[in-house]
Structures are given as structure tokens and as C-alpha cells.
Predict the 3D structure of the following.
Amino acid sequence: MALLSVEDVVVRFGGLRALSETNLQVEEGRVTGLIGPNGAGKTTCFNVVTGLQEPTSGRVRFDGEDITDKSPFRRARMGIARTFQKLEAFSSLSARDNVLVAAEQRRAWDRSINPKAVTQEILEKVGITEVADYMVGTLPTGTARLVELARALAAGPRALLLDEPSSGLNEEETEEMAKLLRVLVKDGLAVLLVEHDMSFVMGICEYIYVLDFGKIIATGTPAEVQADAAVQAAYLGSAAEVVA
Amino acid sequence: MRLKFKPSTLVAIIAVAVGVLYIINANRGVAPYSVANFGTVIVVGAALGGIYAISAGGLVVTYATTGIFNFAHGAIGCFLAFSYWELHVNRGWPTLLALAAVLLVEAPLLGLLLDKVLMRRLRNAPLVVQLMVTVGLMLTFMGISTTLWKPITPRTTPAFFQGHGVKIGDVTATGHRITTVLVALVIAVLLRVLLYRTRLGISMRAVVDNRNLAGLTGARPSVVSGASWALGCMTAGVAGILIAPETGMVVENLTLVIVIAFAAAAIAQLKSIPMAFVGGMVIGLAKAFTSVFVSFGTDWNYAQEAIPAVILFIAVLFLPQARLETGSVRLTKRTERLTTPKEAFLGACVMVGLVSAWANGWIPWFSGTNFGERTEIWLGRGASFLVFGLIMLSLVPLIGWAGQVSFANFAIAGIGAILFTHFGGQNGSPIGIVLVMLVCAPLGAIVALPALRLKGLYLALATMAFAEFTDKVIVRHPQMLDPSATGRLYKPMKLLGFQMSSDPADRKAFIIFLVIAFAVLFFLLEVLRHTRWARRWIAMSDSPAASATIGVNLITTKVAVFALSGAMAGFAGCMYGLSSGSFRVDSFPLFLGLPLVLLLAVQGVRFPVAAFMGAIGLASFPALFEVLGRPSFLTSVELIGPGIAAIVMVYRPEGSVFYAGRDLAGLLPWRRDAREEKALAVAKERAQDITKDEIGELGLSRPFTIEKVAQLDRALNIADEMLERPTIGMTLDDVEEVTGGAPVG
């Protein structure tokens, strides 16, 4: 039984079908990839899971419970956290306070933690202690993305949704990010990853869903997906130039 | 149009309808429901409705095409109506020539100027700045109109087609009214056709959805926004000129039409021109209907005037829930060092010291001693400035931290002052103050409740409607305030050894008590800023979507800050009562509350100290009058100054406290951080000289020279990224960021 499952979700914006009968399962202890060309519906899918977008039809289940009608903050309290493709950091707070807000909020449903200590621990884990006291608005985009990741982790999630975490990071930092993700899933976290950097995706995901025009066109291990003709036509064909 | 209601919405609609019918039935006037009476209602109502529809249509067009809600729409219309009076009546130009000069020359030029100087820079500004600048613009135009056309001289503009009219049954529809309805219809149709059927209109709508993408497909964002504002000003002018003969040439009346237009625009959900027309008509007919058939009795004398405010409130209630939007976070390019509690304590001591020294006459010039027998008057004024300072202080957590722009606090303070007469103000009991605060806290939250789930703009509108409703209905009800009660409503009160009353002899003690209370609240706010509450409010203001996804309950978080702010406003109201000793129904009107919000924003809405500077700012005008011997130019400065100051926020959005604080700290030898901060900010500002608009236009104009590409790179901050990722250059993400309207950097 997967921790998080999206079942037959349809999202319609007027005449446009952003998602049509999308199904995917995110399991604990591994990184699940969600890839596809721009506009395929990846971010819409994230919004449906976190409650920012109401699906036209279909259900979202978390830990066996139907959460389709729950508000975003209730889902967060159940253990779903995310980062955003377009930066949603609290730009007028310091990096430390960004993380602290999430940790303090977590105390509302988990009295056992000490927000300040948790914050420090996560800042170290993500590797942003040096910039912790700068306002996020003054940080480079890549670093601000790490702050978002740290903030998501501070909420104490069981499922973590990452929307293009490596954009804005250099190769070395991307490598660091991959290492961190491996540590996190080893501790039992379920990660759903949207990413354009193919070597990053293929290196870290155990299972991959490929979206195109709101439809899942392929699923499987990285090797299977790469070998899939439909995927190559829809996606890798055009992205290969970028990666190369 | 598709009409589809959820069951809960349907229940609410029925409930409102039943409520409205009940109120109409309970307050039936003497006029019978006759054909003749209904004829009057339709003739009068349609004419009024036509004017509201034109105003609302203009509002919707500028909002739908530029994303900026123009609070100055009514004031611009008022200014143009006065221009028309000047040309037509005063200088005797023929009607058509004067109309053409105002509507086809002056109005579009004004619109282009506003766009070029202000609005274009405002587009990417935070909502607080957008609102403050357009409200400032409103006050500026009101001030200019009052200065150029002094209200001492009565003015009238003639109605159109005077003497002509059509008799329908027993009712005569005057030529002016028929013209109004026809013009409204024509304008609504033209606007609709323009937006949906012409290339310019389609570009206009495309630009508001995604300006950079629209730019890439060949629309020119700057031409489009110029056209929007020119069009907006023209419709404002038409409405102003048509309504002037109905309301008289009075600046406040002509400007207040805007509150009604807001209601019509809210019915149109700020996007549909046909619905704006319908909304205007509904309000016009409702006003005419009630004036003929409904008599609210002496207790609710002014209820009639509050109808638009009520409709606005109800319209807001029925708006569909706003989605939590992402991708709109604006990166704030600044650093900030929080004030430590120790520094805050020192600051509080300085405030108390300064005001006490002034009250004792130790500071020349602005001290009472220099003005001889005027001392007591000045102490009294000083107290009221501090009371207004307290109201501004109540706005700091609400607007500055939580980003909730509310215009209700001034009205809440007024309600607090009235409640205090019931809760012990009449017998000098300090417990009354606590009771008032306990009532005002939930009141603040209740006012905001309908708008909590909506975009910030609707909160501003709903709170403005509440302020107008309070002004017209609540404070005028005899149960609240006996209209015959003049003289002293508040008995002197003894608190912590201070004798507080409006008696001249007590004023010095009272002002010292007030500044201590102010300083204590200031200090507590600064301490609060370091707690999780303030952090959560700021986080919510920066990104509501991200806050929700880390588990923040946005509704309760907002309610908490509204309650805090309401309680503080209630306290300020009690202090107002004690300091003035009496209360009149017109002590807290909407138009006095707006400058307070502006003054705070200009000083720096995120900083508690700005409220103190705001109080000093309030004192500065009367003080200058006193010192300079009442020169007449100062009157116009006082009228126009606050608006202009707010408009300057386009260029200095953080508020003067921020810039002055940074620059002053830079002078201290040990604050190297402040100097570096400033250098960094200046460098960043320079890098941002090229706005995204210009990127759009640069990207369009060929041929691409090396200079242009370099300029683009600089504007997009690509240079930094290239250094970090030398091999990749511009990836798909970057392209998406350019085209997707994401903040640059």
C-alpha cells in the first residue's frame, strides 16, 4: 500500500485538460520521479496533492485516508510537505526564520519537538548555516531553493514533494542535493520529485512516471522509461540536446 | 454567462433576499406601490445607475487590463468635472467644445501621464504599495480640486438637454437622465466590443494574464497600459460630468461616487463589463426604490446613504473563494536587522522623554511656552495626535506584518470611543477601557471575516464599506450615541496616579500618560516581532500558499492579528474620548481615516516607530502654521501633501523610517553592516533599472546588438547564473522564467 496515491485525477481549466485520469503512487523509502515536458501538468499534480488545486474529479489518498476534500494546512499537518517551482520562500524573513516558522508550526501537532533545535539541525543537514541569518530575498535563487527544502523538512513530513529542486544549483550542489535525498529516503521519507535535469532524475529515482499533455504515458524504472519509445518521442528527444 | 450555484450559495442568496424583503417591509414608507411611483423609481434609479455603471465599467477596464485597482477613479472624475465646469460655465465655451476638450484631450493625456509616471512602476509592487499610491492619488486629486476651485463659491453645472424630456405616464424623464442612461449603455457596449473584438482589446487582456508572453507575441505592454489608463480616465470624466448636476459640485460627493462604483465593480467580480453595468443599475434602482418606498425612521436616518456600502459588503460575501496562488512572490531585495528588545526599550524611553520635555515647555519652538496662552490648546492637540498615533500603531501588525490592508481601524476606534460612554466612561471607571478592548477585538475579526478567504484587495474594499457604514449608520443611531447629548460624555478618570480628562489643568498629566501608554505598546510590539506569532504573520504575508503547505491555518492566523489590531484601536478610541471629553457623530469619518493609513505607510508600515513619526508628522502642519503665521500656500500643501507623499512610495516603497534608519546607522562608526547594506541596495537598484517591460520591448526590437543582449542579461541577472553554471547557459527553466512572469533574480 503506497503512502500517497493519486487516483484518476482530472483537472480542467476551462476547455483545457491539465490532468486527465492521472494515477500515481508514492511509496515510503524511495524517490519517485515525475517527469515530462513543460506544461505537461507536473506542477498541477503537485497542487492537487497539496490541496492548492481542487481536482475536477478523482481522489487523493494519504496513508489510507481520503484527503481530497481536506484543506492544504490539514494535509501539511498529516505529513505532506513541498517546495515550489517558482520560489515561494518567505522573502522578508531570514533563512533561519523561514525554517523556524515551519518548526514552530509543527509544534501545534507535535509537542515533542524543540523548534530552535530542529531548525539548527535541519540548517546543518541542508548545508545553509552560513547564510542562515541573511534575508532570503537577498540570497541567490539556488540557495533560496535550499531554504525552501529546509522549511519543508522542518514541517516533519512523511511525504516530500520537490518541484525542480536542482534548478539554480551548480553541478556540485546538485550532487549534494542527491546525497541529501538518499539520506532522507533511507530514513523512510517518501519523495516525489519533479525535475528537468535528466542525469539527476535517472541517478536517484527508483521509479518514474512520465507525464505528457496531462496523461501518464509511461511508468517504470529509469532504464525502462528511457527505453520507452513514447517517452523518447514526447520528451527525451527534445530534452536530450539540453542535457548533452 | 453561466449561472450555477452551490446549495450553500443558494441558501445564502435566499437568506439575503428574505432579510432585504423583511427590512423593506418593516420600514415601509407612506408611498403606495403605484405605477406612477414605480415609474419614478425607474427613471431616477436608471439615471443614477447609469452613472454608477459608467464609473464601474472604467474601474473594471483598468483593473482587468493593468491589474491595478484605482481608488482615485472617482477623484479623477471629480477633477475632470470641475475642469468641464471651468471651461463651459466659467469661460463660456460651447458645450460640445468643452466636452471634447475635457474628455478627448485632457482625460487621455492625464491617463497617459499617470501611466508613464506611476502606474507602470506600480504593477509589480506589493498590494500595500499599490493601494497606498492610488489612495494617495485620490487625496491628491481631491486636494487639487479643492485648491483650484475653492468650495466657498457655490457652483452648478447645467444638466444636458435642459427643458427637454419625455413624459411616460405621470413621470417625466428629463433629457439629462435619458442621456445618462443612453451614454451608459453605449459605453458598456463599446468597452465590451473594445475588449473582446479589437486587436488592442485582446492585447489588453492578454497583457494582464501574462505580460511577458504577450510581449513576445507582439503586443506592446507599455502601449497597452497607456491605452488602459487613458480609457479609465475618460470613463471617469464622463461619469463625473454626468453626475455633477445631480449631486452638486462638491468634491466629497463627487469622489464618494467611487464607493458606489466599487460595489458595482465587486458585483462584476472586477472582470465583467456587462455585470458592472448590471451592478450599477441594481444599485441605482435600489437607492431610488428605498428613497421612494422605504422610510428608515429617525433612528436610522442615514441608512439610505449606506446602501452601496451594504451592497459592496454582500457582493464580497458572495465572491468565489480565491485560490491560493503561487508564483506571485516578489523577491524583496533588501536586508534588515531586527530591533533588539534593548534598543526598543531605549527608543520607548526617548519617546517618553521627548514628549514629556515638550509638555513641560523645555523644547523651544514646538513647546507650549512659545505660544503663550495657547499652551493648553497645544497640549490638547498633542494628545489627539498621540491618539491618532495609537491608531497607526494598531495597523503595524495588521498591515505591516500580516499584509492585511484594512481601512476599518479608524472606524473601530470610533466605535470604541462610543462604547466607552456606555462602559464606564461616564463615571470614570478604568475597567471600561478593558471592556471596550474586549469588544473591539472580536469586532475587528468580524469585520474582516467575509474577506478573509479572498484576495487582499477585497479586504480593503470590505473594510472601506464597513468604515462608511459605521460613519453613516452605527454612530448615528441614538442607541449608540444620543444625538442631543452635547458637552461632556466622559468623566475624568484616575489611573496609576494620572488624572485624565479634557480639563486644561489635567492636560499635561494626560499627555504624559498617553506617551507612556504609547511607548509601552511600542515596546510590546517590538518584543512581539521576535515571537512566533509575528514570524507566522510575516510568513503568511510573504506567501500564503507556502504557509498553508507547512500547516499554517490561514483563517485563524488572520483572525488573531485582526483581533489584536482591533483591541489596540479600541484602546485608542477610549483615549480619544478621554482626551476630547466629548464625541460627535462626525468625529471619525472615512475620509479622515484614509490619511492616517497613508501617513503610516509613508513612514514605513512594518516598523512600530513609524506610528510615532506619523504622530509627529500630524503635528507638523499645525505647528508650521503657528510658526509661519498661517500663510495661505500652506493650506494647499496640507491638502495635497499627504497624497503626494503617498505617491512617492512608488519610488520608495519601504517608508522613510527604513531609509532614514539605514542612512543614519551608516554614520555610526561601528555599523559597517549598515554601510555595506546601503551599497548593496544601491547596486541592486541600479541593476534593476531595466524593468521587465523593457525586456519585453528589447526582446522585440531588431536587430539584436551585443549591447542589447548584454542589457537583457543584466536585467535578467543571467550574468550571475552564467558564472555558476558556465556549461549550460540558458536552460528550459530560464526560458520559462522569462516567459512565465516569475520574478527576476
Q: What stands out?
A: Chain A has two domains: 1-79+158-244, 88-156.
